[in-house]
Design a protein that fits this description.
The chain is mainly α. It has five helices and no strands.
């Protein structure tokens, strides 16, 4: 894809990245790490049951892992734009339809390859 065609996708990805980083910083309490934020958040709360604290802590770590994976996916898409392979399925090499890229600009796969991947994961 040409730079002119990828420019809107790059802008959208950069906006998604900035928003995700802001969300991560907010959830973590600014510039501190997730572990420190969790310790502060769950420090001394005798009113909460231990099981509830453990569940909330596990949820926070799961959300962090999901957000980190999403950030990695966005960064990978930005790298594909930079190296000229954006819009091409990483599995089969087919062009990814523009409608799919508009809906999910970070996607590395065409719909067929994505469906195959998901089917393999659930098999």
């Amino acid at each position: 894809m040409s730079t002119q065609i990828t420019a809107p996708f790059k802008k959208q990805l950069e906006e998604q990245r900035a928003s995700l980083l802001a969300q991560l910083a907010s959830l973590r309490g600014g510039s501190i790490g997730r572990a420190e934020a969790s310790a502060t958040h769950f420090g001394d709360r005798p009113q909460d049951a231990r099981a509830q604290q453990d569940t909330e802590r596990a949820l926070e770590f799961t959300l962090d892992a999901r957000e980190s994976a999403e950030l990695d996916t966005i960064d990978a898409a930005l790298k594909r734009i930079e190296n000229g392979s954006y819009g091409v399925c990483v599995d089969c090499g087919a062009d990814i339809p523009a409608a799919r890229l508009h809906a999910a600009p970070e996607t590395p796969r065409c719909i067929n390859c994505q469906e195959k991947l998901e089917h393999q994961r659930h098999a």
